[in-house]
Amino acid sequence: xxxxxxxxxxxxxxxxxxxxxxxxxxxxxxxxxxxxxxxxxxxxxxxxxxxxxxxxxxxxxxxxxxxxxxxxxxxxxxxxxxxxxxxxxxxxxxxxxxxxxxxxxxxxxxxxxxxxxxxxxxxxxxxxxxxxxxxxxxxxxxxxxxxxxxxxxxxxxxxxxxxxxxxxxxxxxxxxxxxxxxxxxxxxxxxxxxxxxxxxxxxxxxxxxxxxxxxxxxxxxxxxxxxxxxxxxxxxxxxxxxxxxxxxxxxxxxxxxxxxxxxxxxxxxxxxxxxxxxxxxxxxxxxxxxxxxxxxxxxxxxxxxxxxxxxxxxxxxxxxxxxxxxxxxxxxxxxxxxxxxxxxxxxxxxxxxxxxxxxxxxxxxxxxxxxxxxxxxxxxxxxxxxxxxxx
Length: 391
Fold this sequence. Notes:
A 7-stranded mixed sheet has the order 3-9-8-7-6-4-5, with helices on both faces. It has a 3-stranded mixed sheet with strand order 1-2-11. It is globular and about 55 Å long. By secondary structure, it is an alpha/beta fold. The protein has 16 helices and 13 strands.
């Protein structure tokens, strides 16, 4: 057993030496623009709660009502006796909202992505993935038994060359909004390219769903695409919708195949029914409170104007994820700590989450923030000397 202890200790020490060691924050408050950490209130600019719904009173009440109606635990997997009317109603609502025949719930986006890839792909197939895809997509491709080939980020020409050399079934997989860079995939030309080469396209819209599109239906709605152009859609409920879990939406055949063959689904206890009730309430809020998306865009524009005045080299992205590239992991950690000392919480993102040499501050804005809080963030960045740290 000492060999395992020594191996673990050596790997942990190496991560500390490289300034890549990660530590969990222990929040003492709900998610929101202000959070309490270690007895201290901090302005929070590192949450994926893009619409500020995680502590919305209607979601809290829906969760409480769901617990009163269904209890806490689901008791079993969906295929035994864990699939409740609350799950069914949320799946039907998600299918209707995304314009798909059916949707299927999963406990997490990671589970949904790996399940979909495992069911769709077989040995001899090819899965082509953007180099900056989420880890769950890469893991799903690696474990599927198919040939995994990665193409440079958002490089349609490189993808076209790869597709042109293939024979046999091919699946192209991309993030709709890339979680660490904040930019969007060129979905319309991607879909056209896939149709030209008789390949299927799968989109992980975890960071676009709820934020993009006229109704908040996500990256596909913003790109004017439907189910025929993008046969496989995955999105999560734990980011813009403020709840938890994820879903895959698509054809009846796709969903039935997942129910029958996806090990992540068949052998997992169903998510709590009360959480499904809250998910339906969040979906309704997208329609009832469209001002949240509009206001979020105003805050993003305000932040970007202020950052430009400070000389901060932000990427050309218009969404709530605004990465400030630093490069060196130690410098990114130092700047994050300097901001925390000034009452602002912003995470330092380092390898292996991002490629080596691209450590950054991942600044995220939400509809829960005020204009004054955005200005406070800008002031803290200036005081901490962010322009000197930036790559």
